[in-house]
């Protein structure tokens, strides 16, 4: 009986592997903070309006490195840097400003550097970057907030966190309101009462943020998105050779199109990719090209804040965006 069960399991896995759409990559990926970041950005756009820029990597002249910024929410009135902390557990603030989580580790409390101080540092770095690119902003135009969207997040005591922190309880209270009606903590969190920027300055800021360095973005099935760095393609030599032109110096995005019959996984996929256009006066839109390769070809991708390189089959990918 046990032999029959084992054989049946092996046959099932082989059938799943070779005949059905391969979604196993999705189950092998640990839950990442990327989903929380995209969820927060999407909700803020819907509720508050404006434009959310996600996953920025801004050059920091002081440290000769890149400063990661989760979200920048931009409107004509102001801009807010949003640091998303997908924390769970019971958190309190220590005397040095660091956050301490108790209850998850019996032997040692989990500690995290002050997220508010980190967010304020991000404001300074971004302002310096914008100034370097010729964007002059009114003093105090940027503010910062720390959003804790995880329903398992608890603050101890509930009133101990600074006003820059939006706890889960406050986050779920955020609801759409008419633009002329802002009340309660929503106004304090995302409205500073500043005058509108001149239209020309706002357009310049919009362009600069849209062309700022970002993490690469990988979109998987079930609307899963991962921020990180695309490394290379792996697979048969003829497939990798066909994909040789897809590199960040030439390509800014790609889309995977799959065709299948009777629910079976396709052996081939079409990869549509747009060539990167360094816009000048009168430059045309990006040029889309197509290449067909095996669906088993893999993308090597290193998620943000991870030392582990992940492999994703093209059959499990919807799209990928590459930062210049």
UniProtKB/TrEMBL annotation:
It comes from the Eukaryota. This is NERD domain-containing protein. Pfam families: NERD. Residues 32-149 form the NERD domain. PROSITE patterns: NERD.
């Amino acid at each position: 009986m046990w032999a029959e069960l084992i054989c049946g399991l092996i046959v099932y896995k082989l059938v799943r592997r070779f005949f059905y759409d391969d979604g196993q990559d999705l189950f092998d990926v640990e839950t990442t903070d990327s989903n929380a970041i995209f969820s927060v950005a999407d909700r803020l756009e819907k509720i508050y309006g404006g434009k959310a820029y996600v996953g920025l990597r801004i050059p920091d002249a002081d440290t000769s490195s890149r400063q990661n910024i989760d979200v920048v929410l931009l409107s004509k009135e102001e801009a807010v840097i949003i640091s998303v902390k997908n924390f769970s557990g019971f958190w309190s603030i220590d005397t040095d400003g660091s956050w301490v989580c108790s209850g998850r580790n019996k032997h040692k409390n989990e500690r995290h550097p002050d997220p508010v101080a980190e967010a304020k540092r991000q404001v300074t770095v971004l302002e310096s970057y914008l100034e370097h690119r010729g964007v002059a902003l009114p003093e105090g135009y940027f503010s910062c907030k720390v959003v804790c969207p995880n329903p398992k997040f608890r603050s101890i005591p509930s009133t101990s966190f600074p006003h820059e922190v939006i706890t889960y309880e406050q986050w779920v209270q955020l609801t759409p309101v008419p633009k002329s009606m802002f009340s309660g903590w929503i106004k304090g969190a995302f409205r500073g009462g500043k005058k509108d920027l001149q239209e020309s300055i706002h357009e310049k800021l919009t362009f600069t943020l849209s062309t700022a360095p970002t993490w690469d973005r990988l979109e998987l099935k079930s609307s899963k998105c991962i921020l990180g760095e695309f490394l290379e393609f792996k697979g048969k030599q003829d497939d990798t050779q066909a994909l040789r032109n897809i590199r960040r110096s030439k390509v800014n995005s790609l889309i995977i199109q799959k065709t299948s019959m009777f629910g079976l996984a396709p052996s081939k996929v079409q990869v549509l990719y747009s060539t990167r256009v360094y816009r000048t006066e009168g430059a045309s839109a990006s040029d889309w090209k197509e290449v067909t390769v095996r669906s088993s070809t893999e993308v090597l991708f290193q998620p943000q804040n991870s030392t582990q390189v992940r492999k994703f089959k093209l059959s499990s990918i919807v799209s990928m965006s590459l930062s210049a």
